[in-house]
What does this fold into?
Amino acid sequence: MNFEILKLKALDGYTLSGRRYSGQVIKGRIVLAGATGVPQGFYRYFAEAAVSRGFEVITFDYRGIGESAPKSLRGFEMNYLDWVQLDLAGVLQALGSDKGIHLVGHSFGGQTLGVLPDLASVISLHTFATGAGWHGWMPKGEQIRVKILWNIAGPIVTRSKGYLAWKKLGLGEDLPIGVYRQWKYWCKFPNYWFDDPKLNNQMRDSFARVRVPVTALNAIDDRWATPQSRDAFMNHYVNADLKLIDIDPRDFNLRAIGHMGYFRRGSEELWSRVFEDLEKLNA
It folds into this structure.
C-alpha cells in the first residue's frame, strides 16, 4: 500500500516528516504516537490494517528521530516533552478537530495525551506497552540490564558521541541527549514524572483534564512495561473512562509479544480489538 509523504510543522515551526495512509472510505482518523526511538515506518502494517477497516492513519517521526532528525545529533538540543507539547501538538493542530482524532500510542505514545496543551481534537486513546519506566516494575533480569544501560553504557556512549547511540546498542534510533537524560531521570521514580518534585503537581493536574475513553493494553511478557508498570502510570488518567487490559500472547496465537511485538505482522487479531472499539465510538 502506498502512502502520502507529509511535511508537518511542530508548534515552534520545526519540520516533521509524516505519512498519510488512506483508502476510498474514511470513517475515522487515527494519529499514531510512537515509542521512544522507534521510526514511523515500524507502524506501517498497523496503518495498512487500519485503512482496510476504513480509517485514515497519520504517522510521523518526532524531532531528532528517523526522517525528522538532523544530519547529526551532536549538539542537537531539545526537551523530551517537546515530542508532545510541540511535535504531536503540531500534528494534531494541522489536522484540525472537526471530525475528531483517535490517538493510538506505543509506549511513550500512551503517555502523551495528558501532556498535550490542547485536548480538543482527541476523542479516544488506545495504547500498547505504556508504563512508568521504573526498573523496579521489571523482572529481575531486565532490571540488571536496564541498570547497566542507564549507569554504564549510556554515560560512556553519550560522553563519546554527544547523544545516545541507541542503534549501536541494538535498541532503536539514536536519541538526542536531552531525551536520554530526562528519560533516565524519570525512570528513577516508581511513578515516573508524577514523582518528579518539580513536575508532580503539574503533571497530576494536566492528566486530570483527560475525560475521553482511554484503553491501555499490555502483554504479560512485556519486560519493559509490565501490567504493574502500566497501572502505576495509567491510573493517573483519573477522570478518563479507563480500561486496563492484560494480554496473553497465546490468546492471539502468538508465541511472544514483548515490548515491540504489538505492531509486528501477525498481530492483526490484536489490532482488530482496537478497530472494533473505534468503530463503536464512531457509531
About this structure: The mean pLDDT is 95. The first strand starts at residue 4 and ends at 9. The first helix runs from residue 44 to 52.
